Each structure stands twice: as structure tokens, then as C-alpha cells.
Write the C-alpha cells for this entry.
Amino acid sequence: MLRLLNIEFHKLRYSRSAKVLTLTYFILITFIALIASIEFPIGDMNFRVADQGIFNFPFIWHFNSYIAAMLKLFLAIVIVSMMSNEYSNRTLKQNLIDGLSKKEFVLSKFLTVIAFATVSTLFLFIVSLLLGLSFSDYTEFSIIFSDLEYLVGYFVKLTGFFAFCMFLGILVKRSAFALGFLFIWWILESIVYGVLKWKIFRDSDTADQIARFFPLESMANLIKEPITRLNAVQAAASQIGSAFEKDYGVHWYQLLIVIIWTAIFVFLSYKLLQKRDL
């Protein structure tokens, strides 16, 4: 496995675009810290974002995981480009000539996907921990390390999404078209959900139950938006008689759905490569 990873990182080492996009992704995660210093003048008062509890333990794990997951497209471009470069640079054919099997080739790409997700998760953990220790009102050990399931959800979400991008990269061969296909897939999921919700299963949650098994929707459901979880937002909603009733947790069955999709995408990548004449 280390040999396969070494081959992939050797390729990425000489890809300027991959290095720029990867660096941009981690810099943007670091910039979450800038939110802490933002102040909004409201009348005679200064409203500071950090004072609203977004960096309190354990809420910070939820908030930062959600924000960082929104930036995953940067690494997705790296994954898709990594696949398209194999065809344009003919390195795929050369690797197979040099003795690398198609199974090992797909495995090397998937190991790279896991490596990206792992490094990103560890980096997010460090950034969130430092921010929390700096701004959180609660620094007890038991509170700091509660709700870490959001990081697990973040890791599984990234792995699943990158595996999907890997499959699209093999399927379409061109990075621009693969990203376009990703956008089209998202639109198709939205259309199917709309038809189920408003045409077939009206006034019921059956459409939501079905949609949670869609690839992109299942990944999105792993980490739900955290803003309505804030006490200030909850209090404001209560005053106008509109309380939020929402399950913000990361559940095992949600993780399982994404893991199954990840396995499907890896399997389809291998089967597609196996049948394709290179």
C-alpha cells in the first residue's frame, strides 16, 4: 500500500495545480479563525461573531466540520484532475505496462482519496481545538472531546465525495466534463426529489426518506447546518413562535449509507477500467 501511495504522491508532487488547490483548501480552513475577529457595528455596540458561541466546545466541532465540508470542491478538483491527467499524460497506460494491475491502479487512487480525507480531518481537528481553547467558555476535558462524531462524519463525507469524483474522472476522462457531470447529477437528484415530494408523495415525509439514500444527499445529511442550533437563534425563534425541531446528530445508519456508496463507486471504477480498452 505504501508503494502505491508513493507512486501517486510522486505524480502529485509535479502537479502545480494540485499543489495550489490543496494549499488553498487548507488555507481557507485556517481562515475560519478570521471569523473570530469580525465585528459588526450595531448602533453603539460592536457585535463580534466569536462571542455568539460558535467556537464553544462542543459546538465548534459541528460548526467547523460543516464550514470545512463546504470547501471540499477544491480537493475534488484535485481528485478529478488526477484522473484526467492519467489519460492525457498516458501515465495510466505506462503504469500498466510497467506491471501495475488495474486493481492496484484503482486501489492507489482510493488510497490517495483516504489520505486526503485523513489529512484534512486531522488538520480540521487541530484548527478547531486551538480555536476552541482560545475562545470557548467551556474547557473541561469531557466537554472538549464530546461530539467528535462530527469529525467522523466529515471524514466519511469527504471519502465518499472524493470516491464519487474518482469514479467520474475515470468515466468522463476530462476534468471539466467530470465536474460538469457532478453538477448535473446534483440537479438530477434535486429534480427527482422535487417530483417525489410534490407530485407522488404529497404531504408526507416519504420523499425525504427515499432521498436520504441518494449519493450526494446522503453525504449532505451527514453534517446538517449548525446555525439554527445556536442558543441565540433558538431564543429568537421561540420569541416569534417558530421553534426549530431538528435532529443535528451524526447517526450510524447515515454513515453506513455513505460507506456503501463509497464502496460502490470504487467497485464501479474498477469495473469500468477493467472493461475499457486502454
User: Anything to note?
Assistant: The mean pLDDT is 84. The longest helix spans residues 102-135.
